[in-house]
Amino acid sequence: MSSVVEAALEERIDAIVERYGANRQFTVAVLQDTQKACNYLPREALERIAERLDISLGEVYRQATFFAAFSLQPKGHYVIRVCLGTACHVQRGPLVLEQLERDLGIRAGQTTADGQFSLEAVRCLGACALAPVMLVNEEIHGKISSVAASRLIEKLSKGNGAKQE
Predict the structure, then answer these.
(1) Taking the alpha carbons of 56, 62, 65, 69 in that order, is the dihedral positive or negative?
(2) According to the model, what pLDDT value does residue 164 have?
(3) How far apart are CA 93 and CA 68, in angstroms?
(4) Mean pLDDT throughout 109-118?
(5) In angstroms, rounded to a whole number, what is the distance separating the alpha carbons of residues 108 and 122?
(6) Tens of pLDDT along 23-60?
(7) Is the CATH number 3.40.30.10 carried by domain 78-157?
(8) Strand pairing class (117-122; 78-83)
(9) Which sequence spans correspond to the domains of the chain?
(10) Tens digits of per-residue pLDDT, 58-95?
């Protein structure tokens, strides 16, 4: 990482930490804001957080790896989460996931080579009445079929469709 990029990252992390008064009790909130700013939690960011909150790097990693919402790997521009909870499973959620894996050429838990899409299988999105459910970044798509999911991927690939974070 170049020194210019590193300095910019440090400034972003410093601003996030300052919003929480550099208080270690807000470590999870700092991690959340950092992930939102960086789209994942880069090692350099975790090192800076540990330094600024005066806690060990191990403690920061412990929290960053405990919560499934955090990622230590870069995510795609579009993060697609397909619910496989009970209601979605019964309503053909696994078929939606299989279709997306075919369309994107990746498996759940992976990111496309071009960095456009990350695909995740999740246990519950809390929208059981809309089963099957798919979330693209922060936009929910309920009662989604495999065909509709494919069409949405096609639109997103062309730069149309879901709201971006």
Answers:
(1) negative
(2) 45
(3) 20
(4) 94
(5) 9
(6) 999 999 999 999 989 889 999 999 999 999 999 999 99
(7) yes
(8) parallel
(9) 3-66, 78-157
(10) 999 999 999 878 899 889 999 999 999 999 999 999 99
Distances (CA, A) of 30 to 10, 38, 54, 70, 157: 13, 12, 13, 12, 32
CA angle (89, 133, 150) in 5-degree steps: 100
pLDDT of residue 6: 81
Q: Is the distance from CB of 154 to CB of 116 less than 8 angstroms?
A: no
8 A C-beta contact, residue 119 and residue 108: yes
Residue with tokens 């350099």: 44
Cα torsion 105, 108, 113, 117: sign: positive
Return d(Cα 12, Cα 126) in angstroms, integer. 32
For residue 119, the surrounding DSSP H or E stretch is: strand 117-122
